[in-house]
Write a structure and sequence with these properties.
Blueprint lengths: L2 E10 L7 E2 L2 E6 L14 E9 L2 E8 L2 E6 L7 E7 L10 E6 L2 E6 L6 E5 L8 E6 L5 E8 L4 E9 L5 E9 L7 E6 L5 E5 L2 E5 L5 E5 L7 E6 L8 E6 L5 E6 L6 E5 L7 E6 L8 E8 L2 E7 L2 E6 L7 E6 L13 E5 L7 E5 L3 E6 L1 H6 L11 E3 L6 E5 L8 E6 L5 E7 L3 E5 L7 E9 L11
Antiparallel strand pairs: 1-36, 2-27, 3-30, 4-5, 5-6, 6-7, 8-9, 9-10, 10-11, 12-13, 13-14, 14-15, 16-17, 17-18, 18-19, 20-21, 21-22, 22-23, 24-25, 25-26, 26-27, 28-29, 29-30, 31-32, 32-35, 33-34, 33-36
């Protein structure tokens, strides 16, 4: 019986925008009546999700406000609520969300905005605003609530009272969820924040990654930092691995890969690997969330990419879904955010031009189950390649091998039987461009290996 011996991803210049692999579309919503932003013609921004009373909900921001969808039944997804923003229109680029103790917190960075708090505890029957005011702050770029301590962290904050003040970051105690109390602020800019049990990772823009102990929120203690790393740019966002030993972060610069950092010793944070979509030399990861052994990334221009991170030193793509059809990568369009916590059949994605996506990533998660057993020593290089590839099966006794190349749509592009331990193939005449999947078949027991160079 013929079995897959090797399955790998091979990049052949030049890379193009992709369609999908191992990810299926469940639902898409886009309201053409909503205004686009003056910058980049974006209509939508952040995505969030929550479960309450056995119902699942998706939250997406737009230039006009907040849209909440009931996604409980994949066959009948619909918009359940719309919350108008205090500020609306073409100037609105950023909204952000987090839920805590039956409340959804809604913020915005532009215009005469407010913080809004929505009581969601009685859904599906009803939900209503219980707070809509600029008394705490008028604007903020984003928020993160550490639910273990009831502390809300906010980046790029503008307050109006008692006098206008711009803060790089502010921290609020949610002991009373309807009355956030400021307990700390700093002037140094922080773009994004991740906190787990009061250990707080600050993606500090041009100042790299910083880590603090906020167990006493009014007096944080510095624990460590990382600067001067390869591909350092505008440190934008990040997420901690479930085991707490590694942290993945992205710099919002064209062509810069994500960095996987070992954070077991915060006095010596080390980048142990890089990961990228590989779609274009200018691809940019925007936001990322980790659930289990999988990293979910919303990429500008490239859509959703899912990576297996079970080995932090060898991060592998296992699925993707492109939501932005144009092939340009020079701007900041396409996917904004991702939310995977409603389950593999309800992964939420927001695209700035085309709206809300509900995606089924079951195949992407199952894909890696067949990759755990593999034959070591097989090499396919160079990768990326410009036409010629070399295949070295090493010292493995596997007999004749058949090579097959497929494009992202699953169409067979090329096949050949290999009889030598090392083979060089010139594929230039095929004029293959973009992401290509290479499979090597043997006649022996199933052995599967993915190679990433």
């Amino acid at each position: 019986m013929r079995s897959i011996l090797v399955c790998l991803q091979l990049y052949l210049f030049t890379l193009n925008a992709q369609d999908s692999w191992n990810v299926n579309l469940v639902f898409n919503w886009h309201d053409t009546s909503l205004p686009a932003t003056f910058a980049y013609s974006n209509v939508y921004n952040e995505i969030w999700g929550f479960e309450v009373n056995n119902y699942d909900y998706a939250v997406i921001g737009s230039t006009n406000g907040t849209h909440i969808f009931d996604v409980t039944n994949s066959d009948s997804i619909y918009e359940r609520l719309y919350i108008p923003g205090a500020a609306q229109g073409g100037e609105i680029v950023h909204r952000d969300y987090h839920d805590y103790k039956g409340y959804l917190y809604i913020v915005c960075q532009e215009g005469a905005s407010t913080m809004q708090i929505l009581n969601i505890s009685m859904l599906p029957d009803t939900a209503y605003l219980v707070y809509d005011s600029d008394s705490t702050f008028s604007q903020t770029h984003n928020i993160f609530i550490d639910t273990s301590s009831g502390i809300m962290y906010a980046g790029y904050v503008k307050t109006l009272y008692p006098s206008p003040l711009l803060m790089g970051m502010a921290v609020y105690d949610l002991a009373d969820p309807l009355n956030p109390v400021e307990v700390y602020y700093q002037s140094t800019n922080v773009h994004d924040i991740y906190s787990r049990k009061d250990t707080v990772f600050l993606n500090s823009a041009s100042d790299g990654l910083e880590v603090y102990d906020f167990s006493n929120p009014s007096s944080p203690v510095f624990l460590g930092s990382l600067t001067g790393y390869a591909f350092e740019g505008y440190n934008h966002s990040g997420w901690l691995f479930d085991d707490g030993k590694h942290y993945v972060m992205s710099d919002e610069n064209h062509g810069y890969p994500m960095k996987v950092c070992n954070v077991e010793d915060l006095n010596d944070i080390e980048v142990v690997s890089h990961a990228s979509s590989g779609v274009d030399p200018n691809s940019i990861p925007h936001n990322q969330i980790i659930m289990g052994d999988y990293l979910y990334v919303s990429y500008y221009h490239d859509g959703l990419f899912i990576f297996n991170i079970s080995d932090p030193t060898d991060v592998k793509v296992c699925g993707y879904y492109d939501t932005y059809l144009p092939s340009d990568h020079a701007s900041y369009r396409g996917a904004w955010g991702v939310y995977p916590f409603l389950g593999p059949d309800k992964v939420l994605l927001s695209d700035m031009q085309s709206g809300l996506y509900v995606l089924d990533v079951t195949n992407a998660l199952n894909y890696n189950n067949i990759v755990k057993n593999y034959i070591k020593g097989i090499k396919v290089y160079p990768n990326p390649a410009s036409g010629q590839i070399n295949i070295d099966i090493g010292n493995n006794e596997i007999g004749p091998v058949k090579l097959k190349l497929y494009n992202v749509s699953g169409h067979l592009l090329y096949e050949k039987t290999l009889s030598n331990r090392i083979e060089s193939l010139d594929l230039g005449h095929l004029n293959i461009k973009g992401l290509v999947f290479c499979e090597l078949y043997s006649l022996k027991d199933i052995k599967v290996h993915r190679i990433k160079s």
